[in-house]
């Protein structure tokens, strides 16, 4: 057992990012409590951890209070893709407001440090490029993405108010688009969509003219950043951008996926969804300075591992 072992709560632990984080914390010898209501998370994501003596799962909706004794909290619970967060937008906002108040209340009572999985969506459709943490964003407060964007903005407000008002130790990471094995195959995100379409030989759906950009971070790199941020000195509160600054257009991404899968799929162009940001790329100077961190996995390498995962799902008949 790790003599520095802590009791760590991971909300949203059965999701894509949460399951990778749980895996890493279990490997490090911590007592890991994974909490999830399985809205978008799946048991299969954590099945390999269930036999570990230092891993435990609680089925619970974090919008309702819960009393646990822990040393650290990683708050990841929240549907993350537009299809899922727009399915029940009121519940999405509740998950960023009521659930965040509960987790901050828990941190306040136990003295636990708490990490918030915030997002680049805080910047909305950004007017400055690349995005620095000081930028306040350009967010539509009443559109179809607002339940997520404004919810996450309010969550950041709550984090900083609990910090100022109650001295809670907070760590806010603004996550940019992340990909890798265990991404939900049906959540409509561009990397999973393109890979699944390519593997089935179906047309690859490019929204708009495909010239919009995103910066994609491989999941292992991101989890490393979470753990480093949690371990920083108390005065490092963030917000800190966590992402890969390599910027690609959706057309470039489509070509890479076709090349990697050897697919015969062709491109088909569909309308751009409402409020779809045109460019997105993190400035990660703060992460480099405070965490000594930068992503290591290049897009081609990470895509190859993600393709392998989806090929596995295809063989199992899941996709
Ligand atoms: P995900 O959907 O795979 O994981 C979210 C998890 O939270 C799921 O397991 C879901 O069942 C659970 N959950 C949702 N509402 C809940 C509730 N009320 N109570 C308990 N559990 C609940 O998504 P992900 O990609 O792993 O994202 C994790 C976090 O990171 C989210 O907060 C998301 O907003 C943030 N984030 C992700 C990305 C990305 O690119 N993946 C980018 C920015 C921010
Ligand atoms: N809470 C929780 N677990 C705890 C402590 C608090 O779920 O261990 C919830 C509780 O329901 C409360 C919320 O967190 O409503 C906010 O807690 P806080 O102490 O800030 O507020 P108060 O209890 O004073 O309203
Ligand atoms: N996108 C696309 N085809 C798809 C799914 C998404 O061209 O099948 C585009 C989408 O319009 C956006 C980009 O890819 O410009 C990234 O979309 P995603 O939903 O993955 O992330 P987000 O928009 O939240 O950054």
From TrEMBL:
GO annotations of cellular component type: cytoplasm
InterPro entries associated with the record: NAD(P)-bd_dom, NAD(P)-bd_dom_sf, UXS-like
Pathway membership: Nucleotide-sugar biosynthesis; UDP-alpha-D-xylose biosynthesis; UDP-alpha-D-xylose from UDP-alpha-D-glucuronate: step 1/1
Needed cofactors: NAD(+)
Source organism superkingdom: Bacteria
GO biological process: D-xylose metabolic process; UDP-D-xylose biosynthetic process
Keyword Transmembrane helix: yes
Family annotation (SUPFAM superfamilies): NAD(P)-binding Rossmann-fold domains (SSF51735)
Swiss-Prot/TrEMBL keywords: Cytoplasm, Decarboxylase, Golgi apparatus, Lyase, Membrane, NAD, Signal-anchor, Transmembrane, Transmembrane helix
GO MF entries: NAD+ binding; UDP-glucuronate decarboxylase activity
Primary localization class, coarse: cytoplasm
Domain NAD(P)-binding: start-end pairs: 9-306
One Pfam short name: GDP_Man_Dehyd
EC class (word): lyase
Topology of the protein relative to the lipid bilayer: Single-pass type II membrane protein
Enzyme Commission number(s) of this protein: 4.1.1.35
Subcellular location(s) per record: Cytoplasm; Golgi apparatus, Golgi stack membrane
Family indicated by similarity: Belongs to the NAD(P)-dependent epimerase/dehydratase family. UDP-glucuronic acid decarboxylase subfamily.
PANTHER family: UDP-GLUCURONIC ACID DECARBOXYLASE 1 (PTHR43078:SF6), UDP-GLUCURONIC ACID DECARBOXYLASE-RELATED (PTHR43078)
Name of the protein described by the UniProt record: UDP-glucuronate decarboxylase
UniProt lineage: Bacteria, Pseudomonadati, Pseudomonadota, Alphaproteobacteria, Rhodospirillales
């Amino acid at each position: 057992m790790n003599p520095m072992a802590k009791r760590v709560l991971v909300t949203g632990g059965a999701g894509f990012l949460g399951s990778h984080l749980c895996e890493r914390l279990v490997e490090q010898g911590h007592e890991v409590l994974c909490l999830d209501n399985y809205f978008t998370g799946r048991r299969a994501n954590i099945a390999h951890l269930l036999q570990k003596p230092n891993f435990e799962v609680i089925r619970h909706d974090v919008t309702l209070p819960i009393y646990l004794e822990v040393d650290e909290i990683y708050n990841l619970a929240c549907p993350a893709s537009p299809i899922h967060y727009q399915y029940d937008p009121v519940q999405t906002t509740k998950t960023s407001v009521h659930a965040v108040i509960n987790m901050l209340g828990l941190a306040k009572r136990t003295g636990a440090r708490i990490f918030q999985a915030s997002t680049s969506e805080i910047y909305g459709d950004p007017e400055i490029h690349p995005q620095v943490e000081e930028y306040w964003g350009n967010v539509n407060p009443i559109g179809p993405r607002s339940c997520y964007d404004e919810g996450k903005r309010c969550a950041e407000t709550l984090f900083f108010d609990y910090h100022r008002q109650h001295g809670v130790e907070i760590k806010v990471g603004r996550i940019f688009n992340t990909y890798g094995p265990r991404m939900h195959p049906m959540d409509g995100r561009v990397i999973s969509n393109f890979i699944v379409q390519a593997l089935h030989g179906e047309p690859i759906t490019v929204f708009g003219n495909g010239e919009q950009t995103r910066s994609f971070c491989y999941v292992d790199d991101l989890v490393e950043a979470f753990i480093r941020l949690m371990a920083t000195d108390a005065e490092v509160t963030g917000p800190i951008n966590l992402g890969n600054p390599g910027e690609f257009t959706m057309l470039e991404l489509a070509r890479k996926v076709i090349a990697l899968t050897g697919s015969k799929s062709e491109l088909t162009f569909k309308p751009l969804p409402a409020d779809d940001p045109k460019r997105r790329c993190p400035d990660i100077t703060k992460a480099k300075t405070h965490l000594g961190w930068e992503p290591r996995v290049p897009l081609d390498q990470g895509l190859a591992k993600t393709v392998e995962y989806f090929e596995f799902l295809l063989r199992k008949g899941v996709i």
